[in-house]
Amino acid sequence: MEADAESGQVLLLAPLGPLGEDASGSAARSLLAANFLFQGTRGESLSLDPDSRIVFLCAALELASVDTDFAVNWFIRFADTARHWRSRWQSQPTEVSNLVPLPMSALRG
Question: Closest Cα to residue 19, out of 107, 99, 105?
């Protein structure tokens, strides 16, 4: 978690695991497909750090624009989504085509 005092945003990052050297273009396409209209990520995004090749679930929220209950529920939902994706990612880290799309109903909340 990172906070930017200037923008008032909180940035959450959850490492899911490395993208293997043997991962094909289908892995990148699958990650992008999960991000399409945020269907597979419940509003968050999947990102690849190009240097470390680690895939992250990322989210940002401007805290001043929401009340405490919303912020708490947002943190809980992010943690649930991150646990879900980490479990799925670690089961098949180099072949993610079977991971997406993820229906919203598959996640709690």
Answer: 99
The one-character DSSP state at 10 is: E
107: nearest Cα among 91, 87, 84: 84
What's 24's domain CATH number? 3.30.1460.10
- For residue 17 the two structure tokens come to 């695991």
pTM: 0.70
Task: Say whether pLDDT at 103 is over 80.
Answer: no
pLDDT digits (tens, 9 = 90+) for 5-42: 788 888 888 998 887 776 666 666 777 777 666 666 66
CA distance 45 to 12: 11
Which H or E run contains 18?
A: strand 9-18
> End-to-end CA distance of the chain, in Å?
21
Tell me how many domains the chain contains.
1
Eight-state DSSP code of residue 34: H
